[in-house]
Automatic annotation (TrEMBL):
Biological process, per Gene Ontology: potassium ion transport; proton transmembrane transport
Source organism of this protein record: Mycolicibacter nonchromogenicus
Keywords of this entry: Membrane, Transmembrane, Transmembrane helix, Transport
Protein known as: Potassium transporter Kef
GO MF entry, a single one: antiporter activity
Lineage of origin: Bacteria, Bacillati, Actinomycetota, Actinomycetes, Mycobacteriales
Length: 518
């Protein structure tokens, strides 16, 4: 972090350094990596709205992009072979197509980690990116089944019983409270009916964890469970990133071919932008999704290992692919770390889109005559909205990028619009509103508030800005960067509690506070 690089870059580097030191392979590291990936997919399932998979910007984009990637990737690798790249020379069309297929996948682990660090997995571009990754996982299952030489066990049909099983499990879950028993419940559900049962019938175990998560997603405590597993999952995923670097040591020719593969990444991202914008998404949304997906996947290593087992590829290609995956992670981490404002500048140079033809979530939202805009309508934002409107009589509008949450709050009679506070256009529209004079940044993640503040300043918004934070150093940062009112959310809870207690004591007719205690 001292070099302003994401921690995962350090984990990847650690793997290569350990490998260079010839440290004996530690099998337990692979186990930790598998545990982390399984919990990651279970957590995705807990937050996934299955309806997103039916949207054409997800299933159609995935299908077309993979087909185009295989065709164009094969052509690029064939041209490299013709140009004399040693490792590609003499390879059959089938082998080159297999390599292009391996490069068509994006990393679920990397993308979800980036989205969670930003707090944007529920933003439209985040939901679309995760939907595309899930569709790719389905393609991966079909590929592994087709190349394994045997079909899943007939007992796989019995997995339909997972639905009544999870209905029963939900009843148990509701009685477990909010502590370690809830976390233990999540771990058991991910690894037993999820990973173990699917593996036992010849299916991909981590896909089972994803499906069990989806079946539990409608429970009221699903978001809380995902949060409780977050740090466990993050710790275990260190093993995953280190294990990528332990795959093998590169030599100069290996690095050269890996760099050639990395040069294909911009084309991969460009096709995502073209396809998603054709699906009536804004350029900004398309660019953010494309930058998230512009990397290679750990599944590419599995595809290459299948090729090695079938005698289509030399074992050296495993090292080749691991270097390409690692380099793609490093580049994608650097690019995504500077994502939003860079995307705004690129989107501003692209041709204007007809806003009336965009999908409903992408059309401009109007703050109307609101005096206060509350960004982030979670528990803190909701409480702020209620207080500002009910107690102070201010005209307020809530803004959230979580579409289902916006629909729920609007159904309850709140004035809420769907929007993304990290979108520069959003703040430009607010600046042009004569009534808005206060912006409240109430998003749960400090990084999202930081990005929103940068966009707000870039737009020239001249009103007052208030922000909440979880830690004192975040409060201090906000004050140093021009926030007018910065508040520690836990301190705020204490003040509210004191107000409630003080108010009830002042109006209690049976108050005996003046009596001497016995």
């Amino acid at each position: 972090m001292a070099l302003r690089l994401p921690p995962l870059v350090g984990f990847l580097t650690a793997g290569f350094v350990i490998n260079a030191l010839h440290v004996e392979h530690v099998p337990q590291l692979d186990v930790l990596a598998d545990l982390g990936v399984t919990l990651l997919l279970f957590a995705i399932g807990l937050k996934l709205n299955a309806g997103i998979l039916l949207r054409r910007e997800v299933w159609l984009t995935t299908t077309v992009h993979m087909m185009v990637s295989v065709v164009l990737g094969s052509i690029a690798l064939w041209l490299a072979a013709v140009a004399g790249v040693a490792m590609l020379s003499g390879q059959s069309v089938r082998t080159i197509a297999l390599l292009a297929f391996a490069l068509s996948f994006s990393s679920t682990v990397f993308v979800v980690k980036v989205l969670e660090e930003r707090g944007e997995s529920h933003a439209l571009y985040g939901r679309v990116a995760i939907g595309i990754l899930v569709m790719q996982d389905i393609v991966a299952v079909v590929f592994l089944t087709a190349t394994s030489g045997h079909l899943p066990s007939p007992w796989a049909l019995a997995l339909v019983l997972l639905w009544p099983l999870t209905r029963f499990a939900r009843r148990i879950w509701s009685r477990l409270g909010h502590g370690e028993m809830q976390s233990l419940f999540g771990i058991v559900m991910a690894f037993v009916p999820g990973y173990a049962l699917f593996s036992a019938v010849g299916l991909k175990g981590d896909l089972g964890a994803l499906i069990v998560g989806v079946l539990l997603a409608s429970h009221s405590a699903s978001s809380e469970l995902a949060r409780s597993l977050f740090h466990i999952k993050e710790l275990l995923l260190v093993g995953f990133f280190v294990s990528i670097g332990l795959t093998g040591l590169p030599d100069l020719p290996t690095v050269g071919v890996a760099l050639l593969m990395v040069l294909l990444l911009p084309f991969k991202g460009t096709w995502y932008v073209l396809l998603l914008s054709r699906m009536k998404l804004r350029y900004r949304t398309s660019l953010l999704a494309a930058l998230s997906l512009m990397n290679y996947s750990e599944f590419g290593l599995i595809v290459v290992s299948v090729g090695v087992s079938a005698g289509l590829l030399a074992p050296a290609w495993l090292v080749e692919m691991s270097i390409a995956v690692a380099l793609s992670f490093v580049i994608a981490a650097l690019v995504n770390g500077r994502g939003h404002l860079m995307v705004e500048k690129i989107a501003a140079r692209l041709p204007a889109q007809d806003e009336s033809t965009l999908v409903p979530e992408e059309r401009p939202a109007d703050a109307g005559d609101a005096e206060v805009v509350v960004i982030g309508m979670g528990r803190v934002g909701f409480a702020a909205y209620e207080r500002l409107t009910g107690h102070y009589g201010l005209r307020a509008v809530g803004v959230d990028y979580d579409g289902p949450r916006v629909e729920r709050l609007a159904a309850d009679g709140l004035r809420v619009i769907e929007g993304d506070a990290t979108d520069l256009d959003f703040w430009h529209r607010l600046r042009n509103s004569e009534s808005v004079r206060i912006a409240v940044l109430a998003m749960p993640r400090h990084g999202a508030n930081v990005t929103a503040l940068a966009c707000l300043r870039e737009s020239g918004f001249g009103g007052k800005v208030a922000a909440v934070a979880r830690y004192d150093d975040e409060v201090q940062w906000a004050k140093e960067h021009g926030v007018d009112i910065a508040f520690n959310v836990y301190a705020g809870a204490g003040l509210e509690l004191a107000d409630q207690v003080g108010g009830s004591t002042a109006h209690d007719p049976d108050d005996r506070s003046g009596e001497t205690p016995r």
